[in-house]
Amino acid sequence: MKTEHAFFERLANLGQGNWDVKLQPHMVPGQMDLASYTARVYLVDTSTGWTAAGAIQPSGFAGVVKAQRNAGLSVDLVMDMAGQAISRLGREQPGADAPEVAQAIQLTAAALASTQTFKTVQPSGLDGHWIYMAYRLLDASTICRPGFFRTGAPGFAEPAAITHYVRQVVAHDLGSPKSTMIITVGNTKGGVGKTTIALNLAIARALQGRDVWLIDGDRQGTAQTAITIRAENGKQPAISCAHYPDGATLRAQVQQTGPKFQDIVIDAGGRDSTALRAALILSDVLVIPFAPRSLDVWALNDINNLVQEARAVRDGLRVVAMLNNADPQGHDNADAAAAVADFPGMEYVETPIRRRKPIANAAGQGMSVLEYSPKDQKSIDEVTALVNAVFMSN
Ligand SMILES: Nc1ncnc2c1ncn2[C@@H]1O[C@H](COP(=O)(O)OP(=O)(O)O)[C@@H](O)[C@H]1O
Ligand SMILES: [Mg+2]
């Protein structure tokens, strides 16, 4: 026990002086100025759900790795010690400002350094977040997994975003039987922003490192055109895209090729098309964009009828309605929320997406507003909230 403690101290000390650590006092997003910090690190114990966060300014990164080697510490040992620290903290559940948490952040940083995660992941444009999660095994031993995810958030990520990310990683690691997530963006009404939202969802997931397939199910092929422009501009990440306006073809292709992808986003087109019906049978989630004007709200009736048909032949279709092209404020938004509440089994996304030029401009270039320049933080926050709401239960 004493040896273990000494070892722990020695390891934690490796980073000191090289890392300036700032801890998040509690898991509430956005309350710290992290402008000068290059890395945000989260400690997650998957068995208790305990999470702590710290921002670190790693200087002398190479020096830490060298010191580890000189001290005869292997990568496995460093990871193991970081994992033990996280799982011990998870059991004790201390506040994020406890000294042991600072030490565990140091250890985690050492582990990220020794696994070369800092080096291999080069966040460009968007802020990056390092997650270090510990799994407790049945024999009480612990294994760890470093991860990296991107959000547009300037400070610490929302706790919900972290939970969501961790769930995905766990599902991936534990070999979830069906890991492909199929999202349809649909509304029988045109011009409500289906293509815009589908593009943003698909690209947001690709930016998180997911392997995404965007399917354009609309005869007009607007999503496909946007992705072609993206490809011509050489914009990364490249998005795989196919155009299947015919329902039977869409179904066959998703069944055959779908499992190769982690996420499939279907832009289901405007009218009550065969593609929309096929997509509703295949999807995990239907996202319904609608505008906060009474006619559009009534149009929810139409799509809801199709949802009822689909639910009669299948289980588990989640339906999420969201306001797009919303007005700055006023009663319309609240009225829309109330209208959605009238449909049983339809969720409402609390953060509407407002009518914003950068969102339209980005989509015209085959881009998400998350990667659009000049950066528009309000658009980014709204789209990020939608992405979190849609993929949360994955
Ligand atoms: N949040 C938004 N802010 C600004 N313009 C938007 C927004 N959402 C959609 N638009 C614009 O509204 C129009 C219709 O959107 P689109 O995605 O093509 O709808 P749909 O696919 O449902 O027909 C397009 O010109 C698009 O640029
Ligand atoms: Mg469209």
TrEMBL record:
Protein name per the record: CobQ/CobB/MinD/ParA nucleotide binding domain-containing protein
Organism: Daphnia sinensis
SUPFAM superfamilies in the cross-refs: P-loop containing nucleoside triphosphate hydrolases (SSF52540)
InterPro entries noted in UniProt: CobQ/CobB/MinD/ParA_Nub-bd_dom, DNA_Partitioning_ATPase, P-loop_NTPase
Lineage of origin: Eukaryota, Metazoa, Ecdysozoa, Arthropoda, Crustacea
CobQ/CobB/MinD/ParA nucleotide binding domain location: 183-369
Domain of life according to the entry: Eukaryota
